[in-house]
Batch of 4 targets.
Target 1
Amino acid sequence: MEKTETYLEYLKSPEAQAVFRLSQAVTDSLREYLRTCGFVEFLPPVVSSVTDPGLRGAERLPVSLYETRAYVMSSMVFHKQVLATAFSRIYSFSPNVRLEPARNADSGRHLVEFCQLDLEEAGASLDDSMRLAEDMIVATVSSVLDRCRPFLDALDRDLSVPKVPFQRITYDDALREAAKYDLEIRYGDELPQTLEAQISREAGGFLWVTDYPKSCRSFYYRQSEDGGSVRSMDLLYPEGFGEAISGGEREYRPDVITKRILEAGLDPAEFREFLAMADTGLRPTSGFGIGIERLVRYIAGESEIARVRPFPKTPGRITM
Ligand code: ASN
């Protein structure tokens, strides 16, 4: 927003009118696509005794419910595994709160409160999830181009249907790219946002990064045969828009989950309800989450994520 512009003025502007109608077209298209694939939509949990602790530098928001520690959902990744065990193909538009460090305030792509389309599929592999994500993105962009040309034109957005399959590189390949830019990243460190932006720009299209080391991904991802990496993937948007998706195959064996929790320096007692469900038999599943505001930001070609989220909360700045 311009300095002198009130939030209501922004909402009434031609820009916001176009952005929020695109946002609606995006969620409609995602729902239509997933319904045709037989996915069942669930209402998302908002608070829970268990939520994802592995947020790459962000913190969970603890709350006290009846004097018991709970969290506002940071991700429904554990709930997804349980639902997919019972219903095979499931999804949810899940509100997430993550206390991002204030240094991410001006990244243009971080929000404290955001909505994630979380989906999970029983019996699926990493490859199945990647193909599903590619088809879903193609279907969504195609549908927006069919239905929303005037809104894209109003934003001067030149968008085209991406070609599939998307390019794939491994985490190790990304480290080799980093060396080209004199970026020093130690094996096992998170890939910095600057590198993600560079490699996605160079790729000239959507780009998958796979085979992350165990040390920079959460304990719930299934370990690869090599023991050092996990069956996980991230998808990067073109044009330097950064991360779109993260996901992968899940660990479902209770003894291995407990071992991985301990390796990550966490307390299994915190996850006892989830572990108890794993004891009763979780199915092997794979899935991913895609941030809706980031998807709309890419589709609308906006540099500031705050412009595509109603009542945005950027890191360190809490407003209405
Ligand atoms: N959505 C991610 C996944 O499905 C998890 C997360 O959001 N932390 O793996």
Note: Residues 52, 75, 77, 116, 118, 246-248, 287-289 surround asparagine (CB under 6 Å).
Target 2
Amino acid sequence: MIFPEYRPRRMRKNKTLRAMIRETRLSSSQMIYPLFIMPGKGKKEAISSMPGVYRISVDQLKKEARACMDVGINSVILFGLPEKKDAVGSGAYAKNGIVQRAIQELKNQAPEMNVVTDVCLCEYTDHGHCGCLVGHEVDNDATLELLAKTALSHARAGADMVAPSDMMDGRISEIRSTLDENDFHMVPIMSYAVKYASAFYGPFRDAADCAPQFGDRRSYQMDPANSREALREATLDVEEGADILMVKPAVAYLDIISRLRDEFDLPIAAYHVSGEYAMIKAAAGKGWIDGERVMAETLLSIRRAGADILITYFARDMAKLLRERG
Ligand code: PBG
């Protein structure tokens, strides 16, 4: 017998062979790009903790959608910064709210764009929590009705998919039945089924101005230590009618993505969140890592763990790179 008998290096010999046996690929069709919508006209504000990401006004959406579609990104997820906030987050479900106007603008200017909306109250409440309060507690059941109203107002404005991110119990069934009763049975729900109480959301909370004014989100978002509980959360959302299950954040929770992939047959999405993006940008900005390669390797790792869909601030950069390099 010749030593070594089998040589894995044979199949790594050149680019063509490597591409031929590649098990996981990235595709722009599986990426969703987040957009932050702010009031005003002609606005494009840089977000300092997220280089390359901006808050834009509704009138900028046509240009922004074009730029996405030019590189092959055909899905966006919308977050809104309302003109004013109140205790019950009424800006979230206002007929003429910031996200509702953004949906209409996108559907008028770029009808082929797949418009997903984040359904939550935290950007619209003056206390910054994801629901309405009784004392200092978020009132789960009273919040459900407001979330369903929000999702319905998004569907009415023309949203293609809604994505509840609040982590209240029972919200998927409440939203599903409200949509169905109003003839929106064809609008899918992408559930932030497994969302951890994570420090990686820091830059987002600056971007969307939604840091809680007291306490934290640990009484509704999940404890980072738990994985069996993730399966329970996902099971409930499947039973309640979710169409896609999301894990968030992504890289620190690859094991959770992998477990959900094994246990469920629904599409799995992963949110590569603001802090994960910011860390790569910061290190690349200092010249400590190769930003492009780390971006590609990171997104690939999330796909390899089992995610079908990636929500990422890198969507456009990654799509551009895929166009250039294949
Ligand atoms: C709103 C929401 C958050 C994110 C997405 N939707 C913030 C939070 O829960 O505190 C985080 C996204 C990111 O960090 O990129 N509920």
Note: The first helix runs from residue 15 to 20.
Target 3
Amino acid sequence: MSAKKNNNDLMDKIVSLCKRRGFVYPSSEIYGGLGSTWDYGPLGAELKRNLKNYWWDAMTNRRDDIEGLDAAILMHPQVWHTSGHVAEFADPLVDCKKCKARFRADKLAEERCPLKPSKSPLECGGELTEARQFNLMFKTFMGPVEDDAHVVFVRPETAQGIYVNFLNVKNSSRQKVPFGIAQVGKAFRNEITPGNFIFRTREFEQMEMQYFVHPSEDEKWFEYWRQERWEWYQSLGINMNKMRWHEHGQEELAHYAKTAYDIEYEYPFGWQELEGIHNRTDFDLSRHMEATGKDLRYSDDRYTEKFIPFIIETSAGVDRTLLTLLVDGYDEVEIKGEKRVFLRLSPRVAPIQVAVFPLVKKDGMPEFAEKVYLQLKKRFKAFYDVSGAIGRRYARMDEAGCPFGITVDGQTLEDETMTVRDRDTMEQKRMKEGELIEYLQRQINS
Ligand code: GAP
């Protein structure tokens, strides 16, 4: 039977599984780690890459109206003045005079003080300073001189790289509105209180798409993209009862947004934002046009007048989506008195899609299994495992999120059929190599 998943120690179990199986490690661990920074291990790197590819494929390869981009992380510093980030991209910060810790003033109920037993700063009795604004952008210096004239910002969102390339992409691709530009890349924010494993970190990746539309059609496309993004998560097999929409109230709206909805997920630490969908109006292009004097207006033979396109933005976090898959997919099942962990990852993104096992290390089974493995490896992320009891090998793959296990046994040597075990139903079917490839392809794409 499935254990109740929403327990308080679920995050600890996930962090420990990630370390044990090589999904995520604390960064610089042999030096004692660096607060809230994480490294992706062999399985994590693969899962992350699959996830980004799955998004990229949905956004670009499967559509004719979206182009890809890979802009630099360091941009002209003026970009961040123009975008409003230098003036507005800040969180309110307070210091506790008792424990000296700093907290986000707007999230005091969620914060925990460093003194033990750890309490919310609202309960610990420490006097808090007046809130002041803390800008979240990291700064560095460009070139060998470290003075104000050489400050550059490390991008806090990938979106601006898209806006400043709007003309370049439009002219080189000859796209007509409505069209989009998609980008996946790192972003950095000097968060006051990062935490909850890879949920809120100072270095993270975003998958952002900016869709340029005629101003009269902004609401239509906003609704279209809300629907598309919802369905994308659904296609990853996430439990949609744990997803919901949150509409931003006026006081919550970012400085650039007319309307915004978050897709939220119910994590073990509560409902939190997974992706933001914003109607950014003509805010960004107008500001960049004003600052640079470049004409960023759009025209084609369908319109009598030039206009500044409105932008509908879909902005998802890679690390946060990966955490969602881990939390959503984590399951504990008791089998014959033993607690077993299953990571129910979608076959579309699982780091190992199929594992091949010879039942025993003799009678020609390893040779047959290896031959099958080499064939599967050409099409799928495959893994070959010959060591240990078959039950243990299945268990290792269940924990790694591998959806299919192929076992070569005594019968294989007689009729060339192998068992195909489905991680989630535990059902086993027998089939030959030819059927196997077709079966796996169908299962992975369905
Ligand atoms: N361009 C719009 C933008 O950046 P955002 O709501 O600030 O909007 C979009 O961020 C997404 O990026 C979030 O929904 C989240 O998934 C991810 N994200 C933002 N800050 C993050 C952080 N500190 N750590 C991990 N992911 C983060």
Note: DSSP finds 13 helices and 21 strands in the chain.
Target 4
Amino acid sequence: MARIAFAGLGVMGWPMARHLSAAGHELRLFNRTREKAERFAAAYGGKPCTSAAQAADGADALITCVGDDADVRQVTVGAEGGFQSLADGALFIDHSTVSASLARVLAAENPRLLCVDAPVSGGQAGAESGQLAVMCGGSGEAVDAARPLIAAYGRRIVRIGPAGHGQLAKMANQIAIAGVVQGLSESLHFAMKAGLDTEALLDAIGKGAAQSWQMDNRAKTMVEGRFDFGFAVDLMRKDLGLVLEEARAVGASLPVAALVDQFYADVQKLGGARDDTSSLIRRLA
Ligand code: NAP
């Protein structure tokens, strides 16, 4: 069993840490709002810490699941970041969705650590049930060392390539989702305008070539106008921002992803920043 410093007890990090605790690992907890770390410790054990540096002192691994690039920098190389105290040869696993360049820089500048950029797919439900898909970037040695820890909440753990490739794979995932959600939104918008019985429609086409995870899990609630679960529009805009920046850097043309990013900006203006991504259909109404 490992001693793990865990930073970021949010929607995703909390259930991940809970699975690690249930697997018998010893947790050192750090969260920007300290009360969450105390609440977690009271419910599931572990030691709340005042900084990532304190949490990482003597730990075998630092696992982070915070917000964006600035947050990851703060909990790793910041003044009271975990890298200040993390021992040589320890593991660093980042589950946040951030830029590939940050993942590359952290790994290149800290060769004494085993660094893995490991963004996830599967959302809150996947984290709660321990069924996340995890896309890993890093050396084979680092990913192999990370595997037994990630297994506490990961169903698929795939090494994509060297440092940064986990984040690049997550971007490919988000590009695919953006187009599918817009296509599904237009399909349902059309069906409702044309007066179709949407239940019968989904029954008919839901097992055909139009089938998708989004159709299986979101079409019914999109028709009902319910957008109160899943991955928030604000987070999707953050991810599409990373995608479009990387696309410029590598010379990839992403017209649909760029358009859907602007459509999500419309949803934010409609007051839907915290709604889930299937709320894209709202701007068509
Ligand atoms: P969240 O609910 O906002 O949780 C983030 C947690 O990290 C919060 O508890 C926050 O503390 C803490 N935090 C942020 N910055 C920090 C810092 N500098 N120092 C210490 N703690 C800090 O976000 P989430 O939904 O769990 O997402 C986390 C990451 O996973 C993001 O990068 C997101 O894009 C990615 N992701 C999310 C989903 C999803 O469905 N939600 C799916 C896949 C990937 P406070 O308590 O102070 O806010």
Note: The domain at 168-284 is CATH 1.10.1040.10 (N-(1-d-carboxylethyl)-l-norvaline Dehydrogenase; domain 2).
